[in-house]
Amino acid sequence: MSDPTDPSDPIADASVTVTATFCATLVDEWVRSGVTDAVVAPGSRSTPLALALASRPELRVHVHLDERAAGFVALGLGLASGRPAVVLTTSGTAAVELHPAVVEAHQAGVAMLAVTADRPPELFDVGAPQTVDQLHLFGRSVRWFAAPGPPSTEAAGSWRSLAARAVLEATEHPTGPGPVHLDLSFREPLVGAPGPLPEGRPDGAPWHRAGGHRVAVDRLGTSLLTELLDADRGVIVAGADAGDPGAVVALAAATGWPVLADPRSGCRLDHPSVVAHADALLRHESTATALRPDVVLRLGAPPASKVVGAWLAGSRARQVAVDAHGRWFDADRTAHHVLHADPTAVVTALARLVARPASDPWAGRWSAAERAASAAVDEVLAGHPEPTEPAVARRLLAALPAGSTLVASSSMPVRDLEWFGGRHPGVRVLANRGANGIDGVVSTAVGAALAARGTGSPTAVLVGDVAFLHDANALLGLLARDVDLAIVVVDNDGGGIFSFLPQADLLAADRFEQLFGTPHGVDLGLVAAAHGLVTIEPAGAADVDTALRAAVAGGVQVVRVRTDRAANVEVHAELHAAVAAALEALPAG
After folding, report:
1. pLDDT digits (tens, 9 = 90+) for 341-361
2. pLDDT tops 50 at residue 1
3. CB-count exposure of residue 55 (10 Å: 0-12, 13-18, 19+)
């Protein structure tokens, strides 16, 4: 570690303070613990820690003017890299602005270090400015909370433990990864130089280490695993955090079970067992009935599709839910077993126990249905010369090279990717599906792009116009961040998903538009231009392909695709009808 009083440091001429030494110790321990990124929202009370973060060349420090967006940038960094990012704010309402990102990190299981600067105790309840109660500010949405009070030399022996524990609580908590909140009180002077740091572990090791909390597969015994394999008609449902895609597909090949693959699972490989159009297939009643399974292996988070969820809930199959982080994914309360275990280890153990050949009829029926659905979707979309929302999702995935990342907004984008995206080997799909909000989506994508910076692999984000406007401050300073990010906005001038809900049919048109359609009339191109960004606006379906290829080629590009909400409902209905007709045409049996 560099000498904290190095004269080349810009604060070397300042007096040594306990606050600066405390902050330098925290940052040193975070570096030892593998933290690589910090997002700083400028403010005064957070000065000591901001200076400590900026002084370490091992850390990439990203400054963002908006605290709410900064929180989601840190979320995106953690989501894409698997490492917790620090997000630092000053005191007061600045700290409150982190709450949406903290809630998403909590429910999605994304490690994050939310650090809020605070006023010292003597400034509370006396009318001091920018002073609010920040103790347990985020309630139960954090894995751990600590407020050690103003730094003191008497407590120096606890500093490294505090920092290292924060990382472990964020990454190795028994309930899985998530956010940690440190509320740090600082007294003036806020600018100071660090003195000698408390001694750390030898060889740069972190102060604390911890083991995992998952159940080892060998402790499950073979009875549960062999019980699963007794069924010929099995289905694997792979969601986010489903484990190694190759291992999942290998089990499918051995058993003859299809893999109903969510885009976020990474399992939409080019393999006969992979089913990418499960939502469309299971809307067809006779197909859904004929393909009802006896056993279901659910890996990771559930898919967004209500159709798939309802089919699973009504199947009466024996269901086993497996999650690496111990999250309880069983909204319909149908799981016979809920396992906190490594999904890769589980599917690998199952594959070793397979003692019979794959069930060709069962696998063949799923494969034939998947091929028929995919061809029907392609045919319908090819017949539309105008841009359609399902086609944008399908073609964006096709335009992205292997190794790239696509962040999908909640609402319609994540559903269009799930329903119509098809197979996309090598493209990682991320989404904020913990709380399922549409706020902070572009900022999350900025964080993912920062995590990929220097790899040569682009990042794209697919959002609707309302989600884009919710997070317009994500564009602040974006051009200067040196990232490759394609921002694809489907603009139907309002809340398009509501057109699929009963409100659209049951309410008068003007009342529906007032409360749900909510047309905004904002020129999104002008919003992007205010931040120096160029917007491409394709006129037809063929132009969409050209625009998407250009946008993912590098730099920051905005693609605005205008669609119509009513026409979008009709296109979806046309696609579902075409898939149903294709399934009807398949040979019986």
Report:
1. 899 999 998 988 886 666 678
2. no
3. buried
5 Cβ neighbours under 8 A, 6+ residues apart: 12, 16, 193, 194, 195, 196
Provide the token pair at 476. Answer: 């602040």
**Cα-only R_g, the chain:** 26
DSSP label at 519? Answer: -
d(CA 344, CA 24) in angstroms, rounded, equals 39
Q: What is the pLDDT of residue 9?
A: 53
Q: What is the pLDDT at residue 11?
A: 61
The residue among 216 and 558 whose pLDDT is bigger is 558
Q: Could you count the other beta carbons within 10 Å of the beta carbon of residue 141?
A: 20
The pTM (predicted TM-score) of the whole model is 0.90
Length of the chain (residues): 589
> Within a 13 Å sphere around the CA of 419, how many CA atoms are in the beta-carbon half?
27
- Whether the CB-CB separation of 401 and 552 falls below 8 Å is answered with yes
Residue-wise pLDDT for 514-524, tens only, equals 999 899 999 99
Q: Are 407 and 439 in contact (CB under 8 A)?
A: no
Q: Which segments within 58-178 are labelled E, that is strand?
A: 60-63, 85-89, 112-118, 144-146
pLDDT in tens, 429-460: 999 998 888 999 999 999 999 999 999 999 99
Angle, CA of 322, 263 and 243, to the nearest 5°: 35
Closest listed residue to residue 59, CA positions, set 572, 474, 450: 450
Q: List the 459-464 sheet strands across, edge first.
A: 428-431, 405-408, 459-464, 485-491, 556-562, 535-536
Taking residue 230's Cβ as centre, other Cβ atoms within 10 Å add up to 11
Q: Residue 246 pLDDT more than 90? A: yes
Sheet arrangement for strand 85-89:
60-63, 37-40, 85-89, 112-118, 179-185, 144-146
pLDDT tens, 179-197? 999 999 999 999 999 999 9
The whole-angstrom separation of Cα 229 and Cα 177 is: 31
- Distance CA(64)–CA(377), nearest Å, equals 41
Residue ranges of domains in the chain, CATH in brackets: 18-196 (3.40.50.970), 218-364 (3.40.50.1220), 383-581 (3.40.50.970)
- The HSE-up count of residue 4 (CA atoms within 13 Å, CB side) is 25
Q: What is the pLDDT of residues 230-239, one digit of tens each?
A: 788 999 999 9
Residue 581 has pLDDT above 50, yes or no: yes
Instruction: Give the span between the Cα atoms of 295 and 580, in whole angstroms.
Output: 25
